[in-house]
TrEMBL record:
Keyword Disulfide bond: no
Name this polypeptide is given: Putative pre-16S rRNA nuclease
Compartments, as annotated in UniProt: Cytoplasm
Gene name linked to the record: ruvX
Keyword Transmembrane: no
NCBIfam families reported in the protein's UniProt record: RNAse_H_YqgF
Class of the enzyme per the UniProt entry, highest EC level: hydrolase
């Protein structure tokens, strides 16, 4: 059984999956969503859960640098709650402070163009969130 990692934003959700052993995380895709119109990509997430036999979901929770919870973290909490209700899987909220910036830095160091960075940043951030969780389980 695999673990899914999600980096939830207001316009996209980055998706990553663990390997079958739960050792490594790989970015899978970026799902377009629209928070304002209440389009959250749950149908696509459901397909991924089925196809890859996902047993647990890790959702990044972007706490403020001082550890407090702001509007984006509250949105992640709500998203996690809906995932749990829809799919009946355990959902873990994982502190993801700075993962998007770390992913951006890696891509910049690799000299990836801005256009290509935009396409992969969310799934890469999801992979970093998931890898942090996997590493904590060892």
């Amino acid at each position: 059984m695999r673990i899914m990692g999600l980096d939830v934003g207001s316009k996209t959700v980055g998706v990553a999956l663990s390997d079958a052993f739960g050792w490594t995380a790989q970015g899978l895709e970026t799902i377009r969503i629209n928070e304002e119109e209440k389009v959250f990509g749950f149908e696509q997430i459901g397909k991924i859960i089925k196809e890859h036999e996902v047993s647990k979901i890790v959702v990044g929770m972007p706490k403020n640098m001082n550890g407090t919870i702001g509007p984006r973290a509250e949105a992640s909490q709500e998203y996690a709650k809906q995932l749990e209700e829809l799919f009946g899987l355990p959902v873990i909220l994982w502190d993801e402070r700075l993962t998007t910036m770390a992913a951006e830095r890696v891509l910049l160091e690799a000299d990836v163009s801005r256009k290509k960075r935009k396409k992969v940043i969310d799934k890469m951030a999801a992979a970093m969130i998931l890898q942090g969780f996997l590493d904590s389980q060892k």
